[in-house]
Amino acid sequence: MARRVINKKRHLGLQQLSAFADTGRTFLGPVKPSKFIIDEESHESVVVGSTVRLLESLDLSSAVGQLLSEAVQAQHNTYRTGASTLLLLVGAWSSAVEECLHLGVPMSLIVSGMSEGLDSCIEEVTSLQVPVHDVFDHIDSTKIFSEVESLNVSLCPFLQMPSDTGLILKERDLKDVASQSLTTCSLSERPVKSAKLFRPQATVGADKNTSQTPQTLRNSLLADSRCRQSVLTHSRHCNREASDQWTSKHGAAAPQTDRCGLGELAVGLSHGDHSSMRLVEGAVRLQHQNTSVCQSSWKMPFMFDISRVFTCCLPGLPEAFSCVCPGYVTVVSMFSATVLEDLQNQPLGVVLIEGDLTENFRHLGFNKSANVQTVLESMKKLQQDSSEELWTNHVLQVLVKFNVNLVLVQGTVSKHLIEKCVHTKRLVIGSVNGSVMQAFAEASGAVQVSYITQVSENSVGRGVSVTFWRSSPLDVGDGISRMAILLKTEGINLVTVVLTDPVTAQMQTKEDRFWTCAYRLHYALKEQKVFLGGGAVEFLCLSHLRILMEQPLNKGDQICSGGLHNTSSWLASSLALYRPTVLKCLADGWHKYLSTVICNTANYSSEFEARTFIQHHLQNATDSGSPSSYILNEYSKLNSGVFNSGISNEPEQIPRVYDIVTPKIEAWRRALDLVLLVLQTDSEIITGSGHTQIKSQESEGFLFV
Amino acid sequence: MSRLEAKKPSLCKSEPLTSERVRATLSVLKGIVASCYGPSGRLKQLHNGLGGSVCTTSQSSALLANLSVTHPILKILTTSVQNHVSCFSDCGLFTAILCCNLIENVQRLDLTPTTLIKLNKHLLSLCTSYLKSEVCGCRIPVDFSSTQILLCLVRSVLTSKPACMLTRKEVDHISTLILRAFLLTIPENAGDHISLGNSIIVPLKGQRVVDSTVLPGILIELSEIRLMKILPIKKSDSLKVALFRVSLSGDLSDTGEGSVVVSYGVSLENAVLDQLLNLGRQLVSDHVDLVLCQKVIHPSLKQFLGVHRVLAIDRVGAALMEPLSKVTGTQPIGSLGSISPSSYGSVKDLCTAKFGFKWFFHLIPNEATVCSLLLCNRNGTAWDELKLTCQTALHVLQLTIKEPCVLLGGGCTETHLAAYIRHKTFNDPESILKDSGCTSTELQLITEAFCTALESLTGSLEHDGGEILTDMKYGHFWSVQADSPSVVNWPDLLTRCGCGLHNSREELNWSFLRTSRHPFAPLLCLPHEAVGSANNLTLDCFTAKLSGLQVAVETANLILDLSYVIEDKN
What we know:
The complex is a heterodimer of chains A (705) and B (570).
Chain A: H1 12-22, E1 35-38, E2 45-48, H2 51-57, H3 63-79, H4 83-102, H5 107-124, E3 129-131, H6 165-189, H7 193-211, H8 217-230, H9 233-249, H10 253-257, H11 262-270, H12 274-293, E4 309-315, E5 323-326, E6 328-333, H13 334-337, H14 340-343, E7 348-353, E8 372-375, H15 387-401, E9 406-409, H16 415-423, E10 427-429, H17 434-444, E11 461-468, E12 474-475, E13 481-489, E14 495-501, H18 507-527, E15 529-532, H19 536-550, H20 555-560, H21 570-573, H22 575-600, H23 607-624, H24 627-637, E16 658-660, H25 662-679, E17 681-687, E18 692-696, E19 702-704
Parallel strand pairs in A: 4-14, 7-9, 9-10
Antiparallel strand pairs in A: 1-2, 3-15, 5-14, 6-13, 7-11, 11-13, 12-13, 15-16, 17-18, 18-19
Helix pairs in contact in A: 1-4, 2-3, 3-25, 4-22, 4-25, 5-19, 5-22, 5-25, 6-7, 6-9, 7-8, 11-12, 12-18, 19-22, 19-23, 19-24, 22-23, 23-24
Chain B: E1 11-14, H1 20-36, E2 43-47, E3 55-57, H2 60-66, H3 72-88, H4 92-107, H5 113-132, E4 139-141, H6 148-159, H7 168-184, E5 199-205, E6 213-216, E7 218-221, E8 239-244, E9 260-263, H8 268-285, E10 290-293, H9 299-307, E11 311-313, H10 318-328, E12 345-347, E13 349-355, E14 358-364, E15 371-377, H11 380-402, E16 405-408, H12 412-427, H13 430-436, H14 440-459, E17 467-471, E18 477-480, H15 490-493, E19 510-512, H16 528-533, E20 539-541, H17 542-561, E21 564-567
Parallel strand pairs in B: 5-15, 8-10, 10-11
Antiparallel strand pairs in B: 1-21, 2-3, 4-16, 6-15, 7-14, 8-12, 13-14, 16-20, 17-18, 17-19
Helix pairs in contact in B: 1-4, 2-3, 3-4, 3-17, 4-14, 4-17, 5-14, 5-17, 6-7, 6-11, 7-11, 8-9, 12-14
């Protein structure tokens, strides 16, 4: 990697930061061009499609580089999204902070001013949060899932549904069906008590429905939500189940009405990656179906449990083969696959082994004594079989005894054992993911064990079925033919997303993108709120900071505001003088963010044009007096380039864009934390064996203690 | 064949302090510690230059532990500071800077080391007896019936470490947690002899700081979520606990050198496993509900216990053993032989809890003086710094309960003390001269050096080019922007003194700290109403600061007293 020439008179750490951060600029926004990274020594190259993968491939061994990669990793590991935002803001803020230093702003004031500014922005942007309520109550209905609190509803575009009478009628039908089946359902479940409890609610619901007119959609929405709040939990469940049944019968209505609930949320969060998001949505729907079928979980509200989603990458297949399957899809060798002919279409007994299934495997924490020797006392006892053979036979005996035909192993499996098992029509699969094991344990009643000797009748699971996922063999890229198979059991809470791509090099990128989308939807559902996306939040920060800059600090505020911990210092009194500069520096970060997004989505050819465009809107927003209502207004028009991703093919159907809340805000915080941490660092101390070197940034040379 | 080599002669250097190299390295060390001092102190990146982890810090403990100094004089200094920090946690930088300042100032004087040392000692005792006296004007008694002073103390500790990267809201949140954690370690029924419990800091990196929390009892991280399903059924109002120190993994204990010979067909592993299962049977027949093991439990034993509804938690770790034994009242079991019933203990309840992405077992003891502080911070390096800082704050609270008073922080104690010493030696030099047999000029010189050392220490609080003033009434610390016009209306320019007790509207006179001024008597005895009304004070731990002062002066004396350094070069 070529590094920018770093001017020695300025803050080295900040310059390094902005140089590193610049590499990831193009990954921001919905259009993410891939990058080739070539190792000049080994001539190996990789294609990277995300910030995290990019930083993994770069040499970040310097102290600042390491802090940067630590911060990106921390964000990625916690939220799986927001790494590009973090990286870009790190770059933008470190150059802006450097500029501040250049202008002579005291360092402590930069630190306090920027954290205060960010806090204030974070508070401000809560006005752009959209609550996500009970998406799954309306998973297949025409219901709108969100409302904007404390704002005039007309400002929020996606509440203005086309007042299509047909849709409403359908909805009424659905409701009626629901309320009918609701009583029966409740009667069957809780014969006496719940029937009494339900009836009033059911009639209220019906009344509302009959009085509903197309013009008063919003009213009915509110009424419905009120009604929904008062309905008991189990009634909601029954309601949901009923509507599910209904849509499965009248499946044709589903795609048409689908966009309002989960569908719209998913599209809004896809950020241009519709194909991945479609798979995520499919996974959520499958999981939801699963949990609502499963009677035991009726008390719990549905949560998108991402640990029960699993990906299986099959490079070499055309993209169209990507799909979502209930159960576990994995790849086995052609040899193992031969047993499938016999095992198909019958319930199998399963054993789950955590750890390896080899003779020499011992559980973690077991120390083998090296100095134990075995001696033979007489030749009579000598057997022909090796100990491996003995062990394999023992394993087979156990499998036969408990009538087990399928063994899932978390670690590796002895090759010899696999062969033996295939001969006796048993399938052993190694390297199975831990959460897959867990899912099979729950669904089949199996108990995970470490050793085959632990297997007992109680620890064997029953009722697992196995089939070919696809009848023809596939080549996963290493020239060896394998078969993809599908393992399933009744009620298993496990969804496998099969990802296919004809280009092997893109497989990683594809998987990463899938997970990004999955986590985005996961957080939206978990937090029950989303931001209006497409730059709306950043734009609000920008205009909010502009207003803050112009606001004079009043003397009374001075001591409590400003973010300074130490209010007695002279810095507190000179805060007013430097505050606008510092806030402008903070605003520069989002300015850069927005212009980069706009440039990357190719709405504007140059950054200059993008900046002019932002400036124009910024002026309008400030002039309007209330930036947040300006944004909501513009958002409802949806023709303004700031707020749409601009990559939709159908201009009349531009989907709304949403963003997740906490991961975004945390990415901001992390970015600022990193910049401020580096800003406040004045020297690097290299600790080593024997001698210590201190590299001071002011005096360049090494100082020895 | 062995070869004998003539021993190298030892290297002997006289007057080590006069060497240019020693002075230079001393000033580098002082530069490092002084630039870290205070809430706006600069941070240092510590790393090994080979891609190891990077530690960003401004704490003396982290700094000195990683700084491998070579010169014996510096070693004396760093070792005494480290000793002080290990006993008191706080005021390490204070000690180091003061010691460097004293050496530097005193060196300029043309006086014999004996005189220097004698007078330094006198001045030190003057300081300590003043700080301990009732009339001390920079000391506040702690009222344990309100949290105000204690919260200020904790907050001062937290804000003095900028690498924790806390916003003001987060500082408030963490301060409250630390205070709560501390209060949870105080036993409810205190007899004559109080023994405080401990707060265990549980790491939860990557989460938001405001997600940090305090829970009574102990949290044990869970590696396997599926264990949740087999929570024991409570038969009575408490659960019977067995705590194992010995590994139950089923391996052979260390067989020593040589080899063990066994005959074919004998499996030592199975023999050990049988023994473990016997142990399991005893645990079950003794109606134990919960088995905790520091190390690993054999999967088969776990399965056996699970079948009998006994919950087994392994890999608890050495750090938790002591608090676990204390909380449950168990004797940690160290052998696989039979267990004496007296080694069992009990807990009130057990549940699982999820914080961030981690699952924990939460052990709720019958009588709790142990609590868990679940500490979150966004990135690793800031978390490490926050952990050290929280430990310091908890320690400071413990010291404060022993000696229930605090000192004014933010530089005010130092400037006040300097004013007091100056005044004392100017007005009443006889009492010192009588004992020491020095001249009054010598006394004045040393006093000046001593007081300047204290005052320039407070100057190290300023890192953005501000200037320090002191008022002529209280002798407190005031900071002002550099290059302020000479004739100004000070009350307009100044806001509050360093500790936050006084504000500039009090009709005070100010003078620059660096200029000389006539000795004045700072106001003794803090007015009570002033302390009661101020709610945002910067405070320092009394015990730690007093010890820091003593260590600094005594170490400086020791270093000044060195006339030879003898190095064995072999």
